[in-house]
Design brief:
The protein is mostly beta strands. The chain has four helices and 29 strands. The protein has three domains: 75 residues, no CATH class; 280 residues, Tachylectin-2, Chain A (5 Propeller); 107 residues, Immunoglobulin-like. The chain is 10% helix and 33% strand. Helix 1 crosses helix 3 and helix 1 crosses helix 4.
């Protein structure tokens, strides 16, 4: 409550100070991956981890080989800071996994009310009805009841090919899954089927398209609890290993998915990372990997997710950052959407102020910057993730001409703070009408390549720009 009060009391200061009014970017970063240790991991394969809504239970699969039926395990802990207890083995097959559900309320496979549970069909439970592997559903009337027998989702959802790795939205109205059915972009794609209500029929599955899928295999879906971030693994070219973890975001449930981005070399390695799971509070990503430092086979790892709360990149969290949030109050501007989880919730509101207030007056090492100007027009530049690209271009706004960023995907570079104008007249005050430079700042937020294009024009005129500036940027 003290943090909330502090956040709200600073709103008035922001409204009076007039510090900045342009969009900024509040990104999140992945910390150092950590092996869950010998209590969880063994010389066998451990994979497919899922946590409960309160993050106090962890369910996972364990098998001697990938062809082994294996078994399902669960471990619990008293608090989020407590170590995990020794896992309890619930045995093989889905029925054993379902025994975990009443105590776990496992995310990704289950609806929020705990009444529907989605799994890939296994022949020993129920023979496939349509070919390959099918998706099926378990239901129960209340959380105190036993689960009904599994029901195949039918020929609208399933095909003659393989459907697997279902991930259900918490309201039960969107079902994401992977399939090698016809009409895809590659070897295996991610699809979604929707329904208007829980009693409605599922609609024909829709391929998520080239924004998300690739010419290779895309698999292992996991939807965040707010339905705005989709994690998956992929064998697409350009990654760091044989399988890499990716994510795609969307501004709201009605918006399209954005271009999928690689989670980068902090999370991915030259080995194999797959089947991610995001905790309900968005603070931890779980995945399995054969990277060095494990205990044999695939191990379960976790990586923390933290928001970048120094919104203007000046090295300290202060009133200026508060004001940036207030300037975007009530919008869906993801650039300063940092709460209540690091992934945001699709709206800039008091939740974002509360998160920022928790870090008030914290200092951060200034990010390394790469500076470019007109002399670099047409050039190519490489940045490391987290670095700041500073673009300084000659300008004279008194003529009506200003530099403007072209509309383009900014999933690799994201604009940081407002555009600054620096006058060439060093007098105090500078001469009215003096020219100078406009300064743009961008943070490198994910690996990839993109052109950065700016136009010098009068926004009120429908005419060719007086000048253009373009560089090719690669983020490693």
């Amino acid at each position: 409550m003290a943090t909330r009060g502090l956040a709200m009391s600073l709103i008035g200061l922001c409204l009076l100070s007039g510090l900045g009014s342009s969009p900024v970017h509040a990104d999140f970063v992945f910390g150092t991956p950590e092996n869950l240790g010998p209590t969880i991991n063994t010389s066998f394969h451990e994979a497919s981890a899922c946590t409960s809504a309160d993050s106090l239970s962890l369910a996972f699969w364990r098998g001697a080989t990938w062809n082994d039926i294996g078994g399902y395990c669960v471990t619990i802990r008293e608090t989020k800071e407590s170590p995990w207890d020794n896992p309890v083995d619930f045995g093989p097959y889905a029925e054993s996994y379902l025994n975990i559900i009443p105590m776990n309320n496992v995310l990704s496979f289950m609806t929020a009310d705990g009444l529907e549970f989605y799994l890939t069909n296994v022949d020993v439970i129920q023979p496939s009805e349509y070919g390959g592997t099918d998706l099926c559903i378990y239901k129960r009337e209340t959380t105190d009841d036993d689960w009904d027998q599994p029901m195949n989702l039918g020929p609208i959802v399933n095909s003659a090919y393989n459907e697997r790795w279902p991930s259900i939205s918490r309201d039960g109205l969107e079902l994401y899954f992977c399939s090698n059915r016809l009409g895809g972009e590659g070897e295996r794609d991610i699809w979604v089927t929707k329904r208007a209500t829980r009693d409605s029929d599922w609609t024909d599955p829709v391929n998520l398209g080239q924004q998300v899928n690739s010419v290779a295999s895309d698999d292992g879906t996991c939807l965040s609890s707010d339905g705005l971030v989709l994690f998956f693994d992929s064998r697409r070219p350009g990654g760091y290993g044989s399988w890499d973890l990716y994510m795609s975001k969307r501004a709201s449930r009605s918006d399209p998915w954005e271009v999928a981005i690689n989670l980068g070399p902090v999370v991915n390695t030259p080995g194999l990372e797959e089947v991610a799971h995001i905790s309900a509070d968005g603070s931890t990503l779980y995945f399995d990997s054969d990277r060095p430092g494990g205990y044999g086979g695939h191990d379960i790892w976790q990586v923390p997710i933290t928001p970048i709360v120094d919104l203007n990149g000046d090295g300290i969290v202060d009133a200026a950052d508060m004001c940036i949030i207030v300037d975007n109050w009530g919008t869906d501007n993801k650039l300063c959407d940092i709460g209540p989880t690091p992934l945001g919730d699709g709206i800039v509101d008091v939740q974002d102020l509360i998160v920022l207030a928790e870090h008030l007056f914290e200092e951060y090492p200034p990010a390394e910057s790469v500076e470019v100007n007109e002399d670099n027009n047409g050039g190519q530049f490489e940045l490391e993730r987290g670095q700041i690209l500073v673009v300084t271009l000659e300008s004279n706004p008194s003529t009506g001409y200003k530099w403007e960023l072209a509309e383009q995907s900014m999933s690799i570079l994201l604009q940081l703070a407002e555009v600054e104008f620096k006058s060439s007249d060093t007098g105090n005050p500078p001469t009215v009408g003096a020219g100078g430079w406009e300064i743009f700042r961008f943070r490198a937020v994910s690996a990839g390549q993109m052109p950065l294009l700016l136009f010098y024009h009068r926004s009120s005129e429908d005419a060719e720009p007086l000048n253009t500036f373009i560089i090719q940027v690669t983020v490693n």
